[in-house]
Amino acid sequence: SVTRAQSLSLFLLERFPVFWRWGIGHLHDIHSAEGELKQPFKDELPTRQAQLSTLQDTEEFDVLVVGGGATGSGCALDAVTRNLKTALVERNDFSSGTSSRSTKLIHGGVRYLQKAIMKLDYEQYMMVKEALHERSNLLDIAPHLSAPLPIMLPVYKWWQLPYYWAGIKMYDLVAGGQCLKSSYVLSKNKALELFPMLKKDKLVGAIVYYDGDPGVGLVWIRGTGPKCMCKCCWTYQHFRNEFDVRAKCVINATGPFTDSLRKMDDGKNTNICQPSAGVHIVIPGYYSPDNMGLLDPATSDGRVIFFLPWEKMTIAGTTDTPTDITAHPIPREEDINFILNEVRNYLSPDVEVRRGDVLAAWSGIRPLVTDPNSKDTQSICRNHIVNVSDSGLVTIAGGKWTTYRSMAEETLDAAVAAHRLGGGPSKTVGLVLEGGQDWSPTLYIRLVQDYGLENEVAQHLAATYGGKAFDVAKMARVTGKRWPIVGNRLVSEFPYIESEVRYAVKEYACTAIDVIARRTRLGFLNVQAADEALPRIVDIMGKMLDWSDKKRTEELEAAKKFLYLEMGYRSRSEQLTGTTEITLDTQEVAKYTNRFHKFDKDSKGFITTVDVQRVLQNISVQIDENALHEILNEVDLNKNGQVELNEFLQLMSAVKKGQVSDSRLAILMKTAEESLDLRGPVTVDRSGGGV
């Protein structure tokens, strides 16, 4: 999947960083399928302050793009390929909104093709055709970030087999020469061989097709017309400043906030976007094969659910429900449970789908284009519109991640025509994204051989940064171990290393959230692992950005709040509360009470870190005291520094029901008990005799 910010945004971070002004700095040629293109800042990225000064001091830009998501960044890129003087402003970080919260799938839209055929809808058909073209282009321009992914559509009724086969073959036909690989039918046995977690009962067979798996109140308008002006207010390191940015044309690419900017332009404008919330969850990788996705074409309420391998985990989603517009969407527990229930319908009964296995969950707001005749958001077309207002504000709204490039091209065509900007045609078809030029499937081997990186880390860097992986490797510190030689991990179970934080700061990461959410995807993969990595991330960034102790504390708290609310940590932690019902039977209560008392030797009714350490010493196990405090704190519901028997029984009851999984305290106490039982009582002889 797109593993750092998003591929497009980071291309711009490297080529035209943060706020772009076309024509500044050293110019040279970059690869383009349609001709030569000048590029500033080849040798070294300018400082953030230099960028802000350029934005403030430039007399007038040709194009000012508002919004740094996939579409806005695409518009900025398209503009500079036309040699237009271009700037972009973003309220937060690149792809910090909808663009970073997608399904991680570059797809043409199978379900839209079905609607096009069933309803004879030419617009839907053309949207699918356009998306398939853009899918093919993106696979070409970002080979390190994207690859064809087989997706299985399991079939449980005989009559559905020819029906779905015909539809998928039509999908291949529409793709034409840009078809990734031809779809095919699988027998029941072959389907179970490739996807052994699949429910066997009544399975007829399956159809496999291919899509692309991508690795991938700030501004208001004050003037219009040929001297359009935008007031920019920015805050950096607690320093606030305001200045005017002049541009011949302003492009509104603000996603869900589209109507807010349109009404700043003209208060009489009516809404053209209807927001829809899409929730995704991440569960362990053992829920799906490493190289095969799954499509549920008809959920219990008529939606479509994807089930995809992503970063060695499994991502499932999405929901589609009306929502209010907010910069900080929160995943709802009912949406998480809806996805889990749909997953259960397709997996074997041998696979227990547990709520406690949800490692992260997030909600993204889709800026859907409103159909006045629709009754709900599910029937809204994902197509886009380009609108030029009477004052000249150019708005791009709707669409989907896959078609960002063609949307940007159409938007700039409209802007050039409306404002007579001149410049040449778009050159973005075939324009290779940053990192793609020097990438090869074996690049990671050179990283292992030249720098002494772990194989898994090297593969991650090559698949994330492409040819730029060497820049990250050069910043890696020596580990002090025999192997790996360099590359200290941020957390043990993920291949993210400390030098990626340093590189992220080079790419203008300003907050710890920027790093855990967009420069890496740690916050999207496992909220507990991200929380564990935060102190080290803040320490590295604090040294590089000269943060005060107060600033470091603020960054740590802000990132923890982000994980708690927006990445599903709250929903995960609320599975075990002081009101959790104990549903253990009599034998289970006796079993777990006995286990508890092996730690509570003094029969206090509670255990502390001292009690746990004493038992661990008896079985020759050592755990860092701070780590032990964290382990107990996960179960200490009343936060009094100790775990009572009732709290422990609540934990084991939640584990039994699947509400909690991978509880470190539960596993630690079970393992310790087993070790104690194996050792048995200490005899007099073994203790050195007696008197």
Automatic annotation (TrEMBL):
Domain EF-hand: 587-622, 623-658
Required co-factors: FAD
UniProt-listed Gene3D superfamilies: Alpha-glycerophosphate oxidase, cap domain, D-Amino Acid Oxidase, subunit A, domain 2, EF-hand, FAD/NAD(P)-binding domain
Keywords, comma-separated and alphabetical: Calcium, FAD, Flavoprotein, Metal-binding, Mitochondrion, Oxidoreductase, Repeat, Transit peptide
SMART domains the UniProt entry points to: EFh
Location of this chain's protein in the cell: Mitochondrion
Any single GO BP term: glycerol-3-phosphate metabolic process
Substrates-to-products reaction catalysed: a quinone + sn-glycerol 3-phosphate = dihydroxyacetone phosphate + a quinol
Molecular function GO labels: calcium ion binding; glycerol-3-phosphate dehydrogenase (quinone) activity
Function per UniProt: Calcium-responsive mitochondrial glycerol-3-phosphate dehydrogenase which seems to be a key component of the pancreatic beta-cell glucose-sensing device.
Protein name: Glycerol-3-phosphate dehydrogenase, mitochondrial
